[in-house]
Amino acid sequence: MAIKKIGNQTLVFANPPKVISAYSIVGPKEGQGPLKDWFDEILNDDMFQEKTFEKAESKMLRNAIIAALKNCNKTPEDIDFMLGGDLLNQLMSTSYTAREMNIPFFGLYGACSTMTESISLASIIIDGGFADHVIASTSSHFSTAERQFRFPLEHGNQRPPTAQWTVTGTGAVVLASVGNGPMVTHITVGKVVDFGITDANNMGAAMAPAAVDTIYLHLKDTGRSPDFYDMILTGDLGEVGKEIVIDLLSEKGFDVSNVYNDCGVMIFDSEKQDVHSGGSGCGCSASVFCGHIYKRMLKKEIKNVLLISTGALLSTISTQQGESIPGIAHAVAFSIA
Amino acid sequence: MAIKKIGNQTLVFANPPKVISAYSIVGPKEGQGPLKDWFDEILNDDMFQEKTFEKAESKMLRNAIIAALKNCNKTPEDIDFMLGGDLLNQLMSTSYTAREMNIPFFGLYGACSTMTESISLASIIIDGGFADHVIASTSSHFSTAERQFRFPLEHGNQRPPTAQWTVTGTGAVVLASVGNGPMVTHITVGKVVDFGITDANNMGAAMAPAAVDTIYLHLKDTGRSPDFYDMILTGDLGEVGKEIVIDLLSEKGFDVSNVYNDCGVMIFDSEKQDVHSGGSGCGCSASVFCGHIYKRMLKKEIKNVLLISTGALLSTISTQQGESIPGIAHAVAFSIA
User: Fold this and answer.
1) Alpha-helix residue ranges (DSSP H) falling in chain A
2) By CA distance, what is B76's nearest residue in A?
3) B1 pLDDT exceeds 70?
4) Which residues contact B283 (CB under 8 A, 6 or more apart)?
5) pLDDT-derived band of residue A1, with 50, 70 and 90 as boundaries?
6) What letter would DSSP give residue B56?
7) Is-contact A318 B58, C-beta < 8 A?
8) Full-model pTM
9) Residue among B89, B104, B192 minimizing CB distance to A9
10) How far apart are the CA of B68 and the nearest CA of chain A, in angstroms?
11) In angstroms, rounded to a whole number, what is the distance separating the alpha carbons of residues A141 and A149?
12) Residue B208: in which H helix or E strand, if any?
């Protein structure tokens, strides 16, 4: 049987799933950044009336999913599957959200690549004929990630210039076999790539080679030039990783500089907001896609977008054991007619 | 478009993916249990010549995948996707294994439900026409899980009778669109179910309601009676959870007592091996399926098996914050002609 794959690792959808709804919620700091007018909801307080940051993150995710469903007049009963994950150990935010939703659930972990991992698998499920409606979602929260991966918040540690700021944000999309909205036409599923970076304060550099590998293969597999896309957008490489992507792709013969940006660079004003190299976290590409890109696609301001969420697959234990940081990046090609 | 779903949440495969290869590796304690003659490989030392337990777990997983590939004369280049996860924060064992394999990778987290979650998504990908060969795998290790979820190993804490013993073990299967071996005919994807259990030393009771929900829906969706199956097998509920499953399914009108067992009960001799309620961990259902069930199916001793790996979606943080333990269970129906 001929499988629906072109080139090396890109899948093509015969009946492209449509993003029929998307919703984004971000924290106060993200709500003061350059994209502030695009997000669906901005929290005044990143505790979101909860007792812990973890419960706040979970509430943010739950509310985004409920709002995304409402926007397309669906209820949880209409949804065949929910796919998603977050940065917290054992996917705490997503697991507790899935408990409330009562929808058959696949938990995913791709670090900050989770948004495009979720959309990729959701699209396979729909185009394969196994579902009409699937939710794909993810979240991150500065305070939950910081205290899990780095230091207690009370510690107030100094951050080097290469460090990034975990976005407090969430994005949820409803993908459907039939409907209106940006279509998922292709996905390029990433391999784990590790160039030996061991500095957990330089995740952009650790993830950039994975992004380059996936973007390069996507362009090669599809035969598209970078200019086919109105935007090629990585998830959360920040300023440092963004430069590496442009340089490495240029070495491989692709000049992406006209169309390429990074969600982590776009979401904050790095100088005014003291975020050093930019934003990071699963919620970064999720909220920028759902808040900004999706709406610009609906307005037909941009018609073809390649989104590449980028993940750093490190843990505190792997860092303590001297391991380098493996990266992964999954690309999703969206088009609107 | 009519989707390939029957009843409420069961998918049917038109071209059932085949398990063309499976490989299991277990630790020394599992290698002294009742299934010792079935496993493909038994370690003499659970450090596996590595410097840390985490690296040993990752090596066990990597070796199982390499051996599973060898058994069916495949190389990593023949494999379209690798799916899997483990219990460690940020899927440390699986991420580092994926780095070595160089295969497009989807990381999953379903706690101990990961084996059937991986097989389910792999089957969707193959039956949907997106791949010819997919690896599904998972692992767990007593010492990595114990020190991550419970106490430092040096602490030597006492364990209540409901506690389970995390299996040091791994299982990897190669699923293919064409070939010989047990076929994946149906999957029933679980919802998150939470009956309010807060005792992390009683995971069997926390996960049992999710298993009951999935088994009940599977039987209802397919119209099959429990006796259609030669074995209905949960992942790691242990003695305590096993009794709950029999009781709750009986209340719902299904008597599974003739065909039902639990991998966590089967893998250890709970009295002689001092494991209290039985085995647990992702590697439990993975190694019992790959080591024991798969081989018995190849010999046609058993022809129809329903495997329901069961996961407890707790984290140390959620426990500290007083949350109850959500459970999830995914069922995979295997048949061999």
Assistant:
1) 53-71, 92-101, 114-127, 142-145, 203-222, 238-251, 263-266, 282-288, 294-298, 316-320
2) A191
3) no
4) B26, B138, B139, B140, B141, B166, B167, B168, B169, B170, B171
5) low
6) H
7) no
8) 0.98
9) B104
10) 20
11) 12
12) helix B203-222
